[in-house]
Every structure is written in structure tokens, then in C-alpha cells.
Write a structure and sequence with these properties.
Layout (H helix, E strand, L loop, with lengths): L1 E6 L4 E10 L2 E11 L5 H19 L3 E5 L7 H20 L4 E4 L1 H8 L7 H11 L8 H28 L7
Parallel strand pairs: 1-4, 4-5
Antiparallel strand pairs: 1-2, 2-3
């Protein structure tokens, strides 16, 4: 299963692509879509084009994206929400299922605490994926979102196996 994680932003949108098989996750790619210009419509178009290019290149089967949180600045939150919406549309146009996770859930899944800071997320992502160096912060966040989805999928499969009597202790 190839999973694309997206950390949306109106100036920088991070992406991370992993392969997930059971409890084994492997790094495929990550990076940032750096948005240029001041016109919102142009910036949103760049997010759409960038995510579409990543999807076309790495052919993910599922997409995970961070939910919008209410920031102190309402204007920033609205722009973030628009960038997030454009990324979801890019995935939807490719008929990819999109899964949403709160920042707190992502941090809890990857670091073990929902109050982790960016440096802790970067460090754990590098360790979990056995990266040779520290990924850029937005790319690390996107990889963390992909890892969170991989962990969530594994938990759901495990619960389904136990509920059906397969692979669990029920007999």
C-alpha cells in the first residue's frame, strides 16, 4: 500500500510518500511544494498542480491529510483550509480515498504524545523510516501524517481480524 501524506499550506505544502505493508513502513519520497506569488487563486492552483504531479509520479493508493485547526489568525486558518480543500480535490479527482487526522492524533501516533513539537516529530519520522538525515519540517509533518494513517490502518485490520475470529484469540 502506497500512502501519500499531505501537510497543507498556502505558502508551503509538504508531502510524504511511504510504502506500508503490515507493520513495516518504508520511505519512498518527500518534499515541499513551494508556492509563489500573492494572488490566492494562483497559489491554490499551484497547490493543486503540485499535488496532482506527486500523485501522478508516485501512484499512491490512499491519501492522508491533516485536519484544519483553528489558529489565532482567522485569515490564516481560512487560507489553510482553502489549500487543504484544493489538495483534497486533487486526490478526489484521481479517485483516491482521503483520510483526515488531527495534528494531535498524528503526534500521538508518531511520537507518543499529542503535545510533541516539530523537532520531536522530525526526529521520530527520521528514526521510524530509517532516514539518513532530518527531513525538512513540512515534509516531516507530511511523512508523520502518512505514518499515522499506516498505523490507523494496521489497528483497523487487527480489530477486524479479532472481531471475525481470524488471527485473534477468539475461537
Amino acid at each position: 500500500m502506497v500512502i501519500l501524506g499531505i501537510d497543507p499550506g498556502s505558502r508551503i505544502t509538504g508531502y510524504g510518500v511511504i510504502s506500508s505493508l503490515g507493520s513495516r513502513n518504508e520511505y519512498i519520497a518527500s518534499g515541499c511544494i513551494r508556492i509563489k506569488g500573492d494572488e490566492l487563486a494562483d497559489r491554490l492552483s499551484q497547490v493543486y498542480a503540485g499535488i496532482t504531479e506527486v500523485i501522478d509520479r508516485y501512484l499512491p493508493q490512499e491519501v492522508a491529510i491533516e485536519q484544519v485547526f483553528m489558529a489565532r489568525n482567522a485569515d490564516s486558518a481560512l487560507k489553510l483550509g482553502q489549500a487543504r480543500g484544493v489538495a483534497i480535490v486533487a486526490a478526489g479527482n484521481q479517485l483516491l480515498p482521503v483520510h483526515e487526522y488531527s495534528a494531535r492524533k498524528v503526534k500521538q501516533s508518531v511520537v507518543g504524545t499529542g503535545a510533541a513539537d516539530k523537532a520531536q516529530v522530525q526526529h521520530m519520522v527520521a528514526m521510524l523510516l530509517k532516514l539518513p538525515g532530518m527531513p525538512q519540517a513540512d515534509a516531516a509533518d507530511a511523512l508523520a501524517i502518512a505514518l499515522c494513517h499506516a498505523h490507523s490502518r494496521l489497528s483497523l485490520v487487527s480489530v477486524a481480524g479479532v472481531a471475525s475470529g481470524k488471527g485473534g484469540r477468539w475461537r
